[in-house]
Design brief:
Layout: H1 2-5, E1 14-20, H2 25-39, E2 44-46, H3 56-63, E3 65-73, H4 80-95, E4 99-105, H5 109-114, H6 117-129, H7 134-149, E5 153-155
Parallel strand pairs: 1-2, 1-3, 3-4, 4-5
Helix pairs in contact: 3-4, 4-7
Domain TIR: 12-164
Organism: Trifolium subterraneum (Subterranean clover)
InterPro entries: TIR_dom, Toll_tir_struct_dom_sf
């Protein structure tokens, strides 16, 4: 992974932007992944779930990274902020060649792609509770489809160990 990350000729402030939005279990996984990446010598920006939707600092951190890792989980906590962040990550993948790597933490990639199962229920509840135009709703669905169609890593156990 680091060889493809380091091959870009653009000036970057970080190697990886780590994006996740989960109420519980995924936080530990994301923290462990962050630690493993930094131990490997990569500079990692993480979203920390406390920035507001469209926060320019977060969007700038995405653009300034060589790669973005998006962690989808079965306990996904839908938010406008996460979905806007996802759209920005995908845009960077298309326009500046940023590596976009989805990780599916205890969720099937097809559940994300098709918005079904628990992931789909949470997403549909989110859409129903927001005042969104059909266009906005469709853009979020398209972003989920695009991200989950990228080659990624399914992680089907919460007992993952990262080795040096």
């Amino acid at each position: 992974m680091s060889s493809s990350i380091s091959s870009s000729s653009r000036s970057h402030k970080s190697d990886v932007f780590l994006s996740y939005h989960d109420k519980e279990a995924c936080k530990s996984f994301a923290s462990d992944l962050y630690s493993a990446l930094t131990r490997a010598g990569l500079v990692v920006q993480i979203n920390h779930n406390n920035l507001t939707s469209g926060d320019q600092t977060n969007l700038s951190a995405i653009e300034a990274s060589r790669a973005s890792i998006i962690i989808f989980s079965s306990n996904f906590d839908a938010s406008t902020w996460f979905l806007e962040e996802l759209k920005q990550i995908l845009e960077c993948g298309r326009t500046i060649g940023q590596v976009v790597l989805p990780v599916f933490f205890i969720v099937n990639p097809s559940d994300v792609r098709r918005q079904i199962g628990n992931f789909g229920k949470v997403f549909e509840d989110f859409i129903a509770q927001r005042i969104l135009t059909n266009n906005e709703s469709m853009r979020y669905k398209e972003a989920l489809i695009e991200a989950s169609s990228n080659p990624g890593f399914p992680v089907m156990s919460s007992r993952v160990q990262f080795r040096p």
